[in-house]
């Protein structure tokens, strides 16, 4: 069922894919679908949760391997690992970054929980960098949200780009995130209110 969901949600879209079509593609009866899965929404969550779990596992491996590297290296390499799973092909990227948006309150709660995991990771890595003298010590909550937003927006653009020569790669996303992190963690000059 998960493979059928990836194929159909990733090519036709979640809202355009019927349960009947999913069942025909997966070669299961609709009765089995309802008994085992329950709903399209539950199947979507199972699919993105599987990708998220695999991506977080890769991310943890990279964090362990890059333990003594500077923050920008650690964060960029963890996003590279995460994106190598969630953007392994156009279907996966479409499902993970586009098709889950605005589906239902339940799916939105899954997205918020996933975002909190990444937010906590980036914030703790930024705080660790400040302790090591790599960054100015400050609150990193908004910075971490900005990084997540940038990655999500760039991944969405990667899915949408259809013009040859204008396609965005994971490497290009990581280059931009590196720049964002380096800029965001440099010593800042406060901006006076106008």
UniProtKB/TrEMBL annotation:
Q: Which residues bind DNA?
A: 18-37
UniProt keyword Metal-binding present: no
Q: Which residues form the HTH tetR-type domain?
A: 1-55
Keyword annotations from UniProtKB, A to Z:
DNA-binding
Molecular function via GO:
DNA-binding transcription factor activity; transcription cis-regulatory region binding
Matching PROSITE patterns:
HTH_TETR_2
Name assigned to this protein: TetR family transcriptional regulator
Its taxonomic placement starts with: Bacteria, Bacillati, Actinomycetota, Actinomycetes, Mycobacteriales
